[in-house]
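Hi Q.,

Before the meeting this afternoon, I wanted you to have the calcium ion prediction in hand. No need to reply - just skim if you have a minute. The sequence and ligand are here:
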Amino acid sequence: MLEELKSTYHPQEYPKDINCVWKIYAPEDKLIVINIYPEFDLEEQYDFLTIGEGLDAGEDIVIRLTGFNNLRKFASKGSTMWISFTTDSTGSGIGFRLGISHTSDLEGI
Ligand SMILES: [Ca+2]
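Predicted structure with the ligand bound:
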């Protein structure tokens, strides 16, 4: 299973003043694998992509990204994660694209 999550309008510029939250569920015995693709472009220090463990946005933050080229791949500790995308009232970029999959084998990451 591989799903993609993109910022609104990607690869066109994302909207200003938005706050989107996605909740990601894997089967109970699996871990979520998030692969941040290289075409990452958020207005540095004003727009943020934040990812955390569990389902409560804002809690247990794993990573908070802004700016450019945030290529990376990581796995959750549990079977749920939240993803939030917040932008301010000025400046924009092409946003982000993520691959989301799940695994029971961390060695495959
Ligand atoms: Ca902005």
